[in-house]
Amino acid sequence: MVGQERTVLPLLAEDEFGLTAVSATLTFIVAFGLVKAATNFVAGTLSDRIGRKPVLVAGWLVGLPVPLLIMWAPSWGWVVAANVLLGVNQGLTWSTTVIMKIDLVGPEQRGLAMGFNEAAGYGAVALTALATGAIAETWGLRPAPFLLGVAFVALGLGLSSALVRETRAHAALEARGHDGPGGGLTTREVVVLTSFREKALSATSQAGLVNNLNDGLAWGLFPLHFAAAGMSVGRIGVLAATYPAVWGLGQLVTGGLSDRIGRKPLIAGGMFVQAVAIAAVAVVDGFIAWAAAAALLGAGTAMVYPTLLAAIGDVAHPGWRARAVGVYRLWRDAGYAVGALLAGVVADLFDVGVAIWTVALLTAASGLVVVVRMYETHPRPGRTPPAPRPVDLES
């Protein structure tokens, strides 16, 4: 559902709707990011209260109109409205699948499970970005590429309704033997802990925000950057697919690797790799060089993405883990909106190259925050785990 937009939508804004300001073009990402961030938080809370499966199915129902709205949109406002619904769809469905996998696996393989989950998602993003680029080059930017979305939403709703089982009881079972702050925390307390007070949770939240900030840059600005250099739509599709393809496949390795070597090295290292890759996009020129930079960006993101989720699962008590995942994903997906706004404003005031450099420097700074603030949440086998961190809810 997200992949159908990666190649086509930024080009559609210019070619069919005549948007020339970069900030106006990226409004669809701002709308998507803000709504998805808020919906992530709601999804975590609802999953604790009513169960995981009802939230999952509701998300797919909301997603039904998305490809149709884009196909038939008479104005750019319709596209933005479609992305509001896409944000709700993604917030409900993806948050819930993450929570369900954390429910189903034990702590020793949590990173591996997150790697599989994110690899499935971003592998599909890559394949769809590649497919829509090829379709658009042959049959135009609309409506043909978005027919894939009609099939995707039907499959998502059908599979979720017919095959998925409720997993909340697994979390309840795990909670009985879990140390640390109990499951009776209020939602406000979970928000404060995850966002600010608990060092590992807050460090992962800011890293998630910056990670999706640069993903918003890659989604909205890179196609325009490549098109300005004279790249064909088909080649832009290949570049747009390379980054999530490496990201998706890489998580099959990095998720399990974090179970063996720990979370912190992969998170900090991944943020630094992303910073180098983003800077490279601004410095190099040509299809091969940009493809290499996109692959490096995918590798850095693969190091970070499943590992952040696994770290949340390490620290959060099963009784409030779904809400902690929701809060983390609220911060993480707010990065889409922050990245689109920042990149659009800087690109309009200066140029696209300055916007890319700005995001590269922010990404490197985020890696430094992880180095300084985060402790290791999943020690390597054979090492004594860290003592439980006292949590002061009154100060």
TrEMBL record:
Keyword Cell membrane: yes
The keyword Membrane belongs to this UniProt entry's keyword annotation: yes
Predominant location category: membrane
SUPFAM superfamilies registered for this protein in UniProt: MFS general substrate transporter
A GO CC term assigned to this protein in UniProt: plasma membrane
Domain Major facilitator superfamily (MFS) profile: 1-378
Membrane-protein topology: Multi-pass membrane protein
Transmembrane segments: 20-43, 55-72, 78-99, 119-140, 146-164, 266-284, 290-313, 334-350, 356-375
Superkingdom of the source species: Bacteria
Subcellular location: Cell membrane
Coiled-coil features, chain-numbered ranges: none
GO MF, one annotated term: transmembrane transporter activity
PROSITE patterns: MFS (PS50850), SUGAR_TRANSPORT_1 (PS00216)
Keywords: Cell membrane, Membrane, Transmembrane, Transmembrane helix, Transport
Signal peptide as annotated in the record: none
Matches recorded under InterPro entries: MFS, MFS_dom, MFS_trans_sf, MFS_Transporters, Sugar_transporter_CS
Official protein name in the record: MFS transporter
Taxonomic classification: Bacteria, Bacillati, Actinomycetota, Acidimicrobiia, Acidimicrobiales
